[in-house]
Amino acid sequence: MAETTSPPPRPRILYTDAGPEAPFPLRMEGAVISGFGRGSKELGIPTANLPVDAAATPWIADARSGVYFGWASLALPAAHPDIDAAAANFHIYPMVMSIGYNPFYKNSVRSAEVHVLHSFRADFYDAPMRLLILGFVRDELDYSGLDALINDINIDCDVARQSLARPAWTPLEGVVGGAKGTLDGSWLVR
Q1: Active site residue 173
Q2: What does the pLDDT read at residue 167?
Q3: How buried is residue 78: exposed, middle or buried, by Cβ count under 10 Å (0-12/13-18/19+)?
Q4: Which residues face 115 on adjacent strands?
């Protein structure tokens, strides 16, 4: 009988404590669009999708397909239940994202799917979103089943949270929840 082995454990903190290294940070922005409709429904991991537009985001054509982490800022509509009227227009949240074809689903179109690491009480389609992408987590993979995919995404989320929880990886101000660091995140809220 063949022996089944687990993949080696993945590190939960990436890169040095000194902050992002070239070619990062990368920037991306756009209005949140509808995706494939499986993030929340099938995976239990809601995503906010941005258009993949090489004219607006020239680096994306050469970007390695895979999972990235960083910060997302959202300008939620005034009627959104998660809006903080006392805060600035844009609210900053940690995020993990996939750029690629999602081989498990056999996509033929490249997508940018952002999982904002915050529980929202309502959708925010058409809301302006800005991303400050700070690092690469892993290559996109195909999976033998849905549970393996969900497990890897949950690890990606943990990697993002822990990697961003250092001063040089956290914006100076504006992060929902009050975290403060030394990273210049002014582009996120301009």
Answers
A1: no
A2: 97
A3: exposed
A4: 96
What is the pLDDT, as a whole number, of residue 85? 63
Catalytic, out of 21, 29, 113, 140: 113
Whether pTM > 0.85 for this model: the answer is yes
Exposed, middle or buried by CB within 10 Å (0-12, 13-18, 19+), for 116? Answer: buried
Instruction: Please name which of 58, 59, 46, 50 lies closest in space to residue 29, comparing C-alpha atoms.
Output: 50
Beta-strand runs (E) in the chain: 26-31, 48-50, 66-74, 91-100, 111-116, 128-139
Q: Which two tokens stand for residue 102?
A: 């999602």
- On the question of a cis peptide bond just before residue 23, with omega within 30 degrees of 0, the verdict is yes
Mean pLDDT by 10 residues, the chain (190 residues): 58 95 95 74 82 87 93 90 73 94 75 92 91 96 85 94 97 90 93
- Concatenating the DSSP letter of every residue in 37-48 gives S-IIIIIS---E
Q: What angle do CA 109, 36, 56 make, to 5 degrees?
A: 50
Query: What's the rounded Cα separation, in Å, for the pair 188 and 158?
Result: 22
Token digits for 70? 């960083």
Amino acid symbol at 76? L
Distance CA 113, CA 55 (A): 18
- At 171 the three-state DSSP class reads strand
- Find out whether 139 and 161 touch, Cβ atoms under 8 Å: no
